[in-house]
């Protein structure tokens, strides 16, 4: 059971978790906690500390102090500690995966995969960091017109300071380490504000870093209500960089944050464009994987299928047959479709479904919901006047729009205010490349569903889908700044006889 043995010190009584600051597990002086509701049982599963603004101030001071000495720690030592944390994380995958099952209703097998993948990400980051940060640049002045060779310029990468990391509920471990590991290898300190659903998994993750022996105050994890500490954190003068993954909140953060680097990955309405020559069995398999894995609660999920009319009937039949085979039920049973994260999320999805029904969409399955559990639903003959054509359901409901030309598909994709990922299915590589160039999205997948990984690939959105680029290498570069030292040589006239 999570919380026993190795993780006992992070608990304060049964199912009540402490927060982490200055290398210690602490109870909030507020005396308050925040309940975490199990999406499957809809009952309180865990409680976490409701940290106060005063505690946030203390954490920021600790992080700032710890960062100064961490920046002087040799790069190989930083890497060594990250490798150690990765090993501990992978060794204790079972209790962390169990938290993911109970907190966010992630199927058991996917939960284990997330933890292992996160350990791999930490190790890769350590190695990549040593490569990137171990190299500087050397410039000479006479490469620019009008200059003699009297100046030598040395550049290196130095840390930004305190990085505020805010991961989302759907990947609270993986998207936490994708921020923590690059920040640490680059010499920054971390303040982690996990999502409420996913907070306990994140606290277990932080404990793995604690056990690895990182310096006190370098890594901190504050939990609590967004209304109490959310804006206070993102607008805090002690923060030197914000890395955020989530929804609309990110746009508000970017407007309020000061003059600091921002790394934001927000929502998506990832379009899947299907041409007449596409391998429809491949398309159907990818639509199921892309649209329905983790009940569609992924920013890179297929969110709208734009299929050429001539092959639409055939494709819809193939997808329908596969939807019928999806298992629906609790995450403990490794079902394909599990409850969505909250009742408000389920209500929002239902609103989109009702709107589509009123406006005449074809329901390929009967709409069925029990609590937070929504059965998978394919909606055919969706038109642009339906909300589901544009809004992101973040659930197992997928709209199909029939198109009469490739241009129509590209136009629909580009008319969205989102631009995270997209995909195109065709056997014609020339067409695929032309469509990819025309799609206003950060990434286009050819003949595969959208996906964030592998984790070292660049990952970015345009428009309302984000700022900056992720992926291990890009994150390390983003969390550093260039420092230049110029050596001025004596002028040649009086040095050489």
From TrEMBL:
The keyword Transport does not apply. GO terms for cellular component: cytoplasm. It is found in: Cytoplasm. Keywords: Cytoplasm, NADP, Oxidoreductase. The active site is at residue 265. Residues 25-484 form the Aldehyde dehydrogenase domain. Its main location: cytoplasm. It catalyses: D-glyceraldehyde 3-phosphate + NADP(+) + H2O = (2R)-3-phosphoglycerate + NADPH + 2 H(+). Its EC number is 1.2.1.9. It is an enzyme of class 1 (oxidoreductase). Pfam families: Aldedh. InterPro entries: Ald_DH/histidinol_DH, Ald_DH_C, Ald_DH_CS_CYS, Ald_DH_CS_GLU, Ald_DH_N, Aldehyde_DH_dom, ALDH-related_metabolic_enz. GO terms for molecular function: glyceraldehyde-3-phosphate dehydrogenase (NADP+) (non-phosphorylating) activity; lactaldehyde dehydrogenase (NAD+) activity. Belongs to the aldehyde dehydrogenase family. This is NADP-dependent glyceraldehyde-3-phosphate dehydrogenase. It comes from Quercus lobata. The gene is LOC115977235.
């Amino acid at each position: 059971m999570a919380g026993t043995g190795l993780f006992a010190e992070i608990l304060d009584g049964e199912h009540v978790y402490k927060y982490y600051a200055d290398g210690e597990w602490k109870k909030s002086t507020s005396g308050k906690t925040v309940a975490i509701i199990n999406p499957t049982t809809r009952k309180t599963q865990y409680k976490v500390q409701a940290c106060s603004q005063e505690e946030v101030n203390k954490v920021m001071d600790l992080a700032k102090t710890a960062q100064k000495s961490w920046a002087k720690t040799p790069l190989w030592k930083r890497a060594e500690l990250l490798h150690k944390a990765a090993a501990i994380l992978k060794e204790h995958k079972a209790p962390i995966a169990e938290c993911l099952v109970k907190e966010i209703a992630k199927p058991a097998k996917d939960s284990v995969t997330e933890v292992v993948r996160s350990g791999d990400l930490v190790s890769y980051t350590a190695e990549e960091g040593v490569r990137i940060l171990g190299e500087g640049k050397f410039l000479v002045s006479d490469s620019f017109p009008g200059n003699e060779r009297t100046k030598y310029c040395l550049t290196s990468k130095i840390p930004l300071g305190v990085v505020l990391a805010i991961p989302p509920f759907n990947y609270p471990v993986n998207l936490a380490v994708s921020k923590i590991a690059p920040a640490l290898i680059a010499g920054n300190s971390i303040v982690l504000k996990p999502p409420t659903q996913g907070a306990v998994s994140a606290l277990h993750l932080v404990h793995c870093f604690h056990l690895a022996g990182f310096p006190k105050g370098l890594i901190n994890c504050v939990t609590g209500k967004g209304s109490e500490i959310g804006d206070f954190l993102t607008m805090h003068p002690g923060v030197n960089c914000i890395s955020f993954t989530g929804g609309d909140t990110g746009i508000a953060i970017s407007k309020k944050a000061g003059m600091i680097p921002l790394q934001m990955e927000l929502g998506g309405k990832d379009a899947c464009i299907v041409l007449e020559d596409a391998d429809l069995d491949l398309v159907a398999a990818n639509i199921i994987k892309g649209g329905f894995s983790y009940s569609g609660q992924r920013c890179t999920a297929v969110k709208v299928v734009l299929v050429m009319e001539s092959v639409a009937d055939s494709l819809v039949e193939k997808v329908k047959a596969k939807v019928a085979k999806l298992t629906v039920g609790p995450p403990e049973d490794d079902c394909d479709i599990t409850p969505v994260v909250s009742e408000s999320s389920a209500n929002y999805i239902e609103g989109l479904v009702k709107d589509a029904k009123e406006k005449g969409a074809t329901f390929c399955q009967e709409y069925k919901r029990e609590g937070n559990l929504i059965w998978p639903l394919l909606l055919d003959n969706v038109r642009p006047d339906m909300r589901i054509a544009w809004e992101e359901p973040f659930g197992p409901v997928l709209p199909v729009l029939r198109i009469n030309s490739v241009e129509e598909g590209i136009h629909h994709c580009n008319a969205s205010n989102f631009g995270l990922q997209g995909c195109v299915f065709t056997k014609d590589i020339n067409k695929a490349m032309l469509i990819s160039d025309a799609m206003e999205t950060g990434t286009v997948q050819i003949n595969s569903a959208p996906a964030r990984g592998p984790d070292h690939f660049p990952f970015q959105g345009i428009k309302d889908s984000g700022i900056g680029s992720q992926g291990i290498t890009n994150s390390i570069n983003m969390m550093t700044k260039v420092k230049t030292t110029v050596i001025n040589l004596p002028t040649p006239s009086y040095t050489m006889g």
